[in-house]
Amino acid sequence: MPKHLVPSRIALFLLALLVAMALIAAGGVPAAAQDGQKISRLGAYSGYSEQVYDEWVRTAQYVTARDGARIALDVVRPSVNGVPVDDPLPVILIHERYHRADLRDGVGVTQAGYEPLWSFWVRHGYVLASSDMRGTGASFGSRPGEFTDYDSQDAYDVIDWLAGQPWCNGRVGMMGVSANGISQFVAAGAAHPALRAIIPQMAMFDMYDFAYPGGIYREEFLQAWSRTIQRLDLDTPPVPVDEDTDSALARAAVAEHRANLNIYQASQDAPYRDSILEEIGSRGYLDWTISRFAPGINRSNVAVYQITGWYDMYPDHQALWFNNLIVPQRIVFTPFSHGAGFVEGWRETVDPLVNDNFTVLYAFTFHTIEHLRFFDYHLKDIDNGIGDEPPVTYYVMGAPAGEAWRTSDQWPLATEQRTRFYFRGGPSGSIQSANDGLLLPEAPDAVASAADAYTVDYSTATGTSTRWHNGHGGDFFYGDMSEQGVRSLTYTTPPLDADVEITGHPTVSLWVTSSADDGDIFAYLEEVDADGYAHYISEGMLRASHRATQAAPYNAMGLPWHRSFEADLAPLSAGEPVELTFALLPTSNIFDAGHRIRVRITGADDGNYRTPPLDPAPEVRLYRDATHPSYAELPVIPAQ
Fold this sequence. Notes:
By secondary structure, the protein is α+β, with helices and mostly antiparallel strands.
């Protein structure tokens, strides 16, 4: 079947979701992990940990932080006949950005209690705790920014309270996705000795590089996300704690939230890494970047298990975490989007690229088992062998069914061969684009200047269901990118003679001039199948004035890093080619024999990034001669 001819599977998705929820809510897991043998490997676990409890009791109270702020905390304890068990058990904490609990039919329900994905661990003998972060939910205080030192200190104080309870065995783990994944790094940076294991899923490393990748404002995401959290922080009544019978305390807490910083308003006019956010007089990106917690984590007792996805927002960020931590750690690169395998549009996007069947039941099982294996090992001293496994697991899209999960002792892979594919004149015969250039391993040898002219088309876009939309709760789907290719510069290989595996961090190096003194350049990596369907694989971007590279203040894996201080800006000079070098998001994909590799270049991603339009639209010239060779450098993995 051609890669793009995949029928809709919405009915199957809904059926699988119902089956998965019923299985897990009832304490069941797939039979492969239930056969009585001792099994412990990626996605399969049996014979080590039993489900002991089938009910729990929820309580909600305030824990007072060191500065007097009251932090709302739910505790869900395994129980027997309605009575919480007294045995000291490990605690799993979610430091929650999006409300620790919901009102359902007028009753407060801890998010960790009604989600079958969470209750799985309570059944296995863990206490579950969920705290509203300062300035959110029923917690008091305000948020002068996101992931400030207050958040780290509050998490420390909550962990300290939990570890001191007689029903806790003195060990605490943390879990959560996205903001609740980031909050784990923030908490671990405070180095509480009781915090032994965290599983940050889809989590950020550098705040500026997320808000302004390559110096280009990620407007749609930040505007939508800010709107969501403002609604949650100010307009959605929080679930009160038990003592707050008339919700007076919850209302008082929300009144304090009105001092929360609006991230969109603060960030949109702060375009440099060293910009001062006028509302608070702080260099927000430098003061709040999550990577500042790495030294504290490295001094701690915590073990780290990261879960990320090739189609998530943060695979590059989590690779940076892996390369800047020295604690016991592991990381798994899945093919998931931010929806962690539960989004139907993601399934339709990756189905043509993979040979395994990613059902909803598979996603539920994968996440619950990997959490359980890790927590059992670090919080219960169950020797299930996870600590002896290679620290890196990654999924190779396009590998044969059952053979796509691979392991490594390092990231990037030691076996990668960074291979240049040069932009050359065409035609490739694969698309009627602005130039239809070739992408070849042979460097250009022509001394005479050669370039492709491109008038910036501000309507070019990756759509309204991108990885970034999915990151704030929107849809995920990438269709055929060929229509966008018609309005782009494209460089495409001839049909491949053999499979080519690309695993790691692609980069591009582009020599350009422009009729304007600045401009945005977006680069996309695509796989073009035999029918001409262009599958989106990865992307990267850079504003030309931010092109200066410097040594990063951390291990950047040898990739180009742009400091993007205001003093680093360099406008373009008319007619003088400059080199733009930047990284694309990491991936692992086999480009099939008979298919093509394409690099597509545009000057805008409408509706996703803020690119100031000029009238008339500037003309960009992309050079591809021996003096100014433009190329993509791809991490090719030799055939095994």
